[in-house]
Every structure is written in structure tokens, then in C-alpha cells.
Write a sequence for this structure.
């Protein structure tokens, strides 16, 4: 019988109440992992061994929760930074409050959480971030979301290099359109502009017809089990094109051509 590499491991997952986070937590549980959820509502679920209610943008509250987790488990094996939300609309219509919020929740909070947990992650452990194809494919009317996800990729690459001596592997998995509550929860700060509306409507239609969260979770589990997972991995695709092929095209095509394609697709 093949040995289960994840049996009795400890994993902390942020934003595991629903969507991709919950799907990941369930898959981890099936593989014998003890899952600790950190989320805004701290919902209970049979997939969680523990669940903590916490606004991950609240520094004091996060520190308090991290201290509780470390006190109970001493060390953790895996950290999944998954919590996040979206904003859509022209940048000129965004409030400074919403810009602060998305940057804090989707980027800064993950950096700070990594900073707090890092001394307690076992050597040879893993850190995984929920990115997005928007991290490598800059989307109009989602500039701040794109900024967060692209920054997350470079942050992950930087600390992966830092952590080579500890053999801690850091990866970003980049889902394409996924059918979750993320779409309905998106904050829209729009002007009624026709191109803006068309772009956002098209994007949300693709999301509602996207992959099931469990499909993404299965891909993430492969990363969790790999000894040396890649830094960036796509999950899903766009139309008939698989995510890995889109990722490859973005690497080889001229930036001007990629931007032109985005314009044609979304505007």
C-alpha cells in the first residue's frame, strides 16, 4: 500500500469557509491532514479540527490567533493563504477605502500571516497562495485585483529563494474561472460605461460557468504532495485553451500583442 505523505500533517488555511478554500480543506481532511481554518466568520465544518473567526487585515487579531494555533500545535506543516475578494470597475471610480481593503486582504495580510507563521513552519514544509490567472494576464476593470495577484507571485518567488536552506517550498496556484460565491461577493464600483459593463458581465458569465472548486482543490493537492512543486501553476483554462498553455503563450508572446488580445477579449 502506498504511504500517505500527508497523514497527521497540520495545515492552516485562511478563508476556508467556502469556495476554493473549503474544497481544499475537505481534500486535506480526506488525506489525513488536521486542518485549522482562519476566516472572517470562523464557520464550523467537519473538515476543520479548529476554526477561528478573524479579520486577516486586523494585525492584533491575527497575532492573537497565530499565538493560539502555535501554542496548541507547536509546529505546522503547511500554510495555505487563500482568503480574498474582488473589486470591479474603472480605477477612477474606486474609493480609496476599497483600494486599501483589497490590498490589505488580498496581499498585505498574506505577507504578514506568512511572517508570523514562518518561524513555526517545519523545515521541508510548504506555503501555498491562491493566486489567479489575473496575476499574469492583467485584466481591465480589475486593476487592483491584478496588482495583488501579480505581486503575490513575485513575493512567493522571493521567499522561496530565501527559504531554500530550510527546504520550504513556496507556490502560487492560479485558478482560472471558478464557480464560487466569489462572483456575487465582488464589490462593483462602476460608472455605467458600456465597455465597462460589457467587460464585467462577460467576466462574471465565464466565472458562473467555470470549474467546480473541487477541480481546483485536486490540482492543489498535487502541489501539496509534490516534493518540489513549481512556483506557479495554473488550474483550469479559458475556453478550449488549458491554463498551462495560456501561461506558456504569455511567456513567449510580445507584451503588446498580449495586451491587444486582452483588449479584444474584454472590451
Amino acid at each position: 500500500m502506498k504511504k500517505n505523505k500527508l497523514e497527521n500533517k497540520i495545515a492552516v488555511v485562511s478563508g476556508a469557509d467556502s469556495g476554493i478554500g473549503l474544497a481544499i480543506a475537505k481534500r486535506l481532511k480526506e488525506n489525513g491532514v488536521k486542518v485549522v481554518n482562519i476566516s472572517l466568520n470562523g464557520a464550523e465544518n467537519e473538515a476543520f479540527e479548529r476554526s477561528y473567526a478573524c479579520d486577516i487585515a486586523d494585525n492584533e487579531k491575527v497575532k492573537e490567533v497565530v499565538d493560539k494555533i502555535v501554542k496548541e500545535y507547536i509546529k505546522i506543516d503547511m500554510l495555505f493563504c487563500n482568503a480574498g475578494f474582488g473589486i470591479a470597475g474603472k480605477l477612477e471610480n474606486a474609493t480609496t477605502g476599497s483600494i486599501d481593503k483589497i490590498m490589505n486582504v488580498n496581499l498585505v495580510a498574506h505577507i504578514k500571516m506568512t511572517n508570523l507563521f514562518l518561524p513555526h513552519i517545519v523545515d521541508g514544509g510548504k506555503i501555498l497562495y491562491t493566486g489567479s490567472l489575473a496575476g499574469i494576464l492583467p485584466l481591465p476593470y480589475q486593476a487592483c485585483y491584478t496588482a495583488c495577484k501579480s505581486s503575490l507571485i513575485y513575493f512567493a518567488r522571493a521567499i522561496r529563494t530565501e527559504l531554500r536552506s530550510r527546504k520550504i517550498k513556496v507556490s502560487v496556484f492560479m485558478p482560472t474561472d471558478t464557480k464560487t460565491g466569489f462572483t456575487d461577493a465582488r464589490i462593483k464600483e462602476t460608472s455605467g460605461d458600456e465597455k465597462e459593463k460589457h467587460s464585467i458581465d462577460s467576466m462574471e458569465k465565464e466565472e458562473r460557468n467555470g470549474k467546480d472548486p473541487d477541480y481546483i482543490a485536486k490540482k492543489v493537492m498535487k502541489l501539496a504532495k509534490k516534493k518540489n512543486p513549481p512556483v506557479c501553476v495554473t488550474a483550469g483554462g479559458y475556453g478550449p485553451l488549458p491554463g498551462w498553455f495560456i501561461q506558456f503563450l504569455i511567456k513567449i508572446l510580445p507584451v503588446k500583442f498580449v495586451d491587444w488580445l486582452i483588449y479584444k477579449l474584454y472590451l
About this structure: Residues 96-117 form the longest helix (22 residues).
